[in-house]
Write a sequence for this structure.
């Protein structure tokens, strides 16, 4: 019998990918903290996970007509959103470097937790395969 990694890992593999994407966006924000007119962006992690959960559970909406909205994870869950600034700078930049650093570090910790969880899942699968 073949092992279904989707069933074994659930949404955790997609969570890891979403954390990587969010890290890239947050790093870009930090790199442009002093760029006039730069608008801080972020991904909607909750929406990405909701789409991943739907695809893993099999309750994903099917598009049966060209006139229907495309609800796939690529079109709806991965879009970048603009961040609403608490206090935008005079040059129009909306990056708050301290808050971005905090978000980046939190995302890094969440990434590490997801990675450790997946690592333990693979370790368990390996032991099951070996019959340990």
């Amino acid at each position: 019998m073949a092992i279904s990694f989707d069933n074994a890992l659930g949404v955790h593999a997609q969570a890891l990918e979403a954390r990587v994407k969010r890290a890239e966006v947050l790093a870009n924000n930090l790199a442009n903290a002093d760029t006039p007119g730069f608008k801080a962006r972020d991904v909607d992690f909750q929406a990405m996970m909701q789409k991943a959960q739907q695809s893993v559970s099999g309750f994903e909406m099917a598009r049966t007509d060209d006139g229907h909205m495309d609800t796939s994870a690529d079109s709806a869950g991965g879009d970048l959103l603009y961040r609403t600034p608490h206090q935008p700078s005079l040059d129009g930049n909306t990056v708050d470097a301290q808050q971005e650093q905090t978000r980046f570090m939190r995302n890094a910790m969440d990434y590490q937790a997801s990675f450790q969880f997946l690592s333990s899942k693979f370790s368990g699968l390996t032991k099951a395969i070996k019959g340990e």
Strands lie at 41-43, 80-82.
